[in-house]
What we know:
single chain, alpha/beta, Rossmann fold, two-stranded parallel ribbon, 8 strands, binds pyrazine-2-carboxylic acid, binds zinc ion
Amino acid sequence: MLYHINPARDALIVVDVQNDFLPGGALPINDGLEVIPVINRLTPLFNHSFFTRDWHPVNHVSFSEYPQYRDGSWPPHCLVDTPGAELHDDLHLPDNPIVINKGTHSNREAYSGFQGTDLETRLRREGVERVFVCGLATDYCVKFTVLDALRSGFQTVLIEDAARGVDHPLGNAAQAVQEMKQKGAQIAQYREMVASLPELMVNEF
Ligand code: VGL
Ligand code: ZN
């Protein structure tokens, strides 16, 4: 199906496209770089783009000496104010990007961009009714952001090919997509996104 983006009512949430989740980073996600050109083609369709960042203190509860890449056991990553926590340079930010930091408390995990942040408040203030979610990782921060968006009453669309998962064990990312779908998210592909032009045309002539 096609999704006609209404810039007034739709928002894009780009989850954790940070250096540490990309090749050379502390917790790299296979093929993570592939989301960047896709996301760069998505952001211009929206008036409201939110960029979340994992933003951990050095003693964050999820950090393990022997990480398991699941069950909340990860190598130290996305430390506050370090290059690994920065959004990747190739990601084009719009003029008015809104950056949401999460996971900032040492004793609490926060995979979701909604958890412990003002994301919901800001979306409501802007009159957003539907959110499109993409980024890293499909089976962790993207999934929990999607599930919280649904719980908060937003129409929620995962842009599947603009997201990649840790996928450990193999199949975990596909299972996460099924769970999002089962809980009410729509699953879309980049090619199904279309710009809504009528309003622009009325204003220009
Ligand atoms: C994430 C594992 C640990 C993510 C964050 O962004 O999906 N995954 N922290
Ligand atoms: Zn983290």
